[in-house]
Amino acid sequence: MSGLHHITAIAGNASRNLDFYTRVLGLRFVKKTVNFDDPTTYHLYYGDEAGRPGTILTFFPWEHAAPGRLGVGTTQETRFRVPATSLGYWSHRFVEKSFPHDALEKRFGETVLAFTDPDGMRLALVGAAIAEGEPAWSDGTIPAEHAVRGFHGVTVMVEDGPRTGALLKDVLGFAESGQDSSFTRYRAAAALGATVDVREAKGFLRGHVGRGSVHHIAFRAADDAQQADMARKLLRDHKITPTEQKDRKYFRSVYFREPGGVLFEIATDQPGFSVDEPLATLGQLLKLPPFLEPRRTELEGVLPPLESKA
Fold first, then answer.
1. Are strands 175-180 and 183-187 parallel, antiparallel or unpaired?
2. What is the pLDDT of residues 47-62, one digit of tens each?
3. Which residues contact 228 (CB under 8 A, 6 or more apart)?
């Protein structure tokens, strides 16, 4: 098992974030919960119908967070996968919705439509012919034939590209697959979330995480045993000590800083998002882990209402 599990970013206003990712991009609102380490803040999850690994984008919406700054040690871009024939639809949709976007361009032989979300997070849609035959979820906001299938990949900006690349290959199951200018692509065998582009940016200022930037990138482990094996390789071969395992209710995680400074996570595929509510009603109710249930009334009183424009 390899590839991306999920990506977690920082947003500002929670309702604006919900509106953009569900009503503009057409992702499913998979889970409404809280940041387990800061439970007065939401943790919002978006993905496909079931929130499969490789489709999950999550946010901590801190209303007054300072903007992040792109630079060394940060994630430069998060990419989604759509059918190649759908890029015209999406270009028109962004014009219609007055959302900032770039002209279509080619990268690694693929057509890419780059844009930003309302908090300035750098995103892109990548057209893939094979995506036309892949499962698509739609609630009617976006026609199923044009819907986002899941992640294509991410781009990280680091000082020393080969060191980050070695970790991707040795521990996380990727293989080097190409070069495009200062970008080196690493590819996994997963159907979704299969690419990490490493941009070597020697001499650039260091970036910092904030509103509109990625907090961490999570990679897949099939189960606890595979996760433990990956953690051992980190320590043995790269002298990096990950955290102890943390139970995030929908997956179990360990965290570490890769050599370039980007926060990485290894997350298990199980148990998934239907562990505490039925698939048909994912995202409708506030779900809390058992240790926070005694504080439900308090937390419901301080969390802002979530309202998405219909």
1. antiparallel
2. 999 999 999 999 999 9
3. none
The average pLDDT across 265-290 equals: 96
For 246, other C-beta atoms within 10 Å of its C-beta total 14
